[in-house]
Amino acid sequence: MVTIIDLISVQSPKDISAFIDYLNSRNKRHDTRNVALYKAYIANQEQLIFDEIGTNAFNALKKRLTDQLIEFSGGRFLTHELSSENQVIKLIVLARKLFAVHKDKTGFQLLKRAEKKALGLDHYSLLNEIYHTMIEHSHKMEDVDQKALFQKLERNNQLFISEEKLGVLYASMQKQFNSENFGVFPSTLHELYDDGLKVFGIDSDVAMSFRSLNQLCVLTDLYGSQTKNYHQLDLFFEDMIAPLQGSERDTDKMLGYHIELLYGLSNIYFRKKDAIKSMFYLNQMKIQLLRLNGKYKKLWHSRYTNLLALNLNFSSRWSKAIDLLEGALESSVLRDNEKALLSLSLSMFYFQHGELNEVKRMINSFNKTDNWYLRQMGNEWLFNFKAIEVLLHFDLGNDLLAESKILSFQRKYAKHFKTDKNNPLWPFLQLVKSVLHTPEDIGTKEFVHKVENAIPWRGEQEDFFNMCFYGWLKAKMTKAPLYKVTLDLLNFNSNQK
Question: From the CB of residue 11, how many other CB atoms can be counted at a distance below 10 Å?
């Protein structure tokens, strides 16, 4: 089912303002309920409208607003996405008109211009049209090499088919990752990929693009996330990046994939506890964000800032990390999901330094429902938020509230943890609950033994954020500063100490 909240999630603040103007321009004088409902969804208060007008009227209004959102947003994005393609199409159409009136030389010049643009877009179907048109009229031009045109057409067709097959390969690999039998692969990711290229008969040149490498990076990150083991991830495709940068395949069309790839690699290396490599790719990402007059800067700024702050914090530069996030959160153009991302990291930084009032301030700023955060931010974000919230109340001495939060979490997400047995958060919260009941036990050998048996701990292979929560327990057991304990546990590879 199409949901309004999902449609709103792809809108920028500028889109939101434009859509309200769009609705008002089409509404009758007294018919503004669609605007009210739209604003209610943005504020997560649609229930108020439902209570006011009743089920039937609400459903009718919701359907009308959904249709209006699809019409507006679809048209808006289509205009943007097709602008470059339309330029190519216009050149092809004009060239054909010129051929019809025997203006062959100019027609070919326009097709060459169209070919250059289409190559920059990696648009194989448009290139087919261009090459077919060139071949059709090639007999009119003495200096046109027909054989070279045939070769271009054949090569382009191969690329088109291979790219389609590559998409199928990635879809099949991802399906394996999401299956019930995930984790029992007989092969490594590298072997799965190489086998797939052979099975699908995919041209290895096609596999060498920012789009395809980014897909591999996404699959690698997914593998690490689901196994909770970033430590052993095989980044076999990393050496393929350098030859592409600055090459003819480093086109404007590929810039979005290029940026996403660099971010993905930086994030993976951060989760592998390698700040040097993570910062290397962040710096490369920063350079690419300046291309095309900063076209992608706004889209990626929050994620870039958050990852930079995480690297700084765990490289002993926590003050700089906090200043960076506080400054970023002052922006008035941040989306709600961007605010949530930055605010949770900032909450963690303050917590690690015992700034509990600041943590409380940050926690109180999260005003959406759990379902909203689950939809917009994902499981991992929500569970990390819940854990920090519990630990905050523990350290504030709000024992009853801390235990209530744990019990509520366990009731709500028991089903999830039954299928995600590698996640140590469930046994961790059980340990926190036991400490609430018998706080005097936390420094005993018996409790240390209990911790070792309760949490499926894998030492240096443990996931980054899980180690942060374990650090809290260890700090309590050893009566040492939380931040120092966390850094010692992580053994973060950084040249900054």
Answer: 19
